[in-house]
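does this look right to u?? heme C version
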Amino acid sequence: MKKFATFLIAATALFGGVAMAEEGPTPAKGISFSFEGPFGTFDRAQLQRGYKVYKEVCANCHSMKLLSFRNLADKGGPSFTEAQVKSLAATFKVQDGPNTKGEMFERAGLPSDRFPSPYPNAEAATAANGAMPPDLSLITKAREGWHGTFNQLWNGIGGPQYVYSVLTGYETPPADIAKEKPEGKYYNPYFQAGHWISMPPPLSDGQVTFDDGAPNKVDDMAKDVAAFLAWTAEPKMEERKQTGFEVLIYLAILAGLMYFVKKKVWAGVAH
Ligand code: HEC
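got this back:
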């Protein structure tokens, strides 16, 4: 009887936890990416396409302050050439100064510049959009696609899936809440801070033309830009995985050697 009571309490705690975790935003769509798993790597062409989506669409509202243009040439990333990075950077306007007259001025971006913010300050960004468009540098690490400790241990936190789901998740609101629609907001059940989001659906089919001729439906562009933002949040991911793998091989060899050393050291010892 006592055992049964303990079981009941444990079960309630466990399932209560699960039930609580299930409230809130709809879990992200479980699409898969090339960079998942212990050996997953980024798909260069996809990162380059994702960059283009960021540049042509998202950069109009969102900043990406932690990334410099020259990072786009880094190993393990989109791997643009130095020359490509130079011309990509030059398409952005960057504030510099003060000059000898004490005035700030605008110039074309250089590879060493960070990605500039499209607005002069947070207030201007909020005023223009009804809410602050968050900086996207780390967004795939700052948001979870789903909840539950085991779920996340097994499937990762789902940050890139969250971004993908928000971008593809605009829906007609269910009739019962449609009349609650706040002015200037859109229904998106995947958005973590409630179902109403101030970002208008940013993508439409065919909006960005890819140099490699890859498909450019909303779904494709959302996937590509989510992959790109997974890279911006962890630019050294490939290096980390490779080092981890090498360390494991090293430890396996070391363990084997130690076994024989142990055998030899103890060989002459009488029982
Ligand atoms: C017209 C301006 C605009 C454009 C273009 C735009 N966004 Fe947004 N975005 C916003 C605003 C404003 C918010 C904040 C919404 C809110 O808080 O209600 C937002 C929120 C988001 C969020 C949710 C963040 C969170 O807090 O969970 C993500 C992810 C996002 N944007 C990604 C993108 C991506 C990727 C692109 C390019 C494909 C893009 N956005 C294009 C204005 C924009």
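The pocket of heme C is lined by residues 53, 57-58, 60-62, 129, 131, 133-134, 139, 143, 163, 166-167, 192-193, 197-200, 202-203, 225 (CB under 6 Å). idk if thats expected tbh
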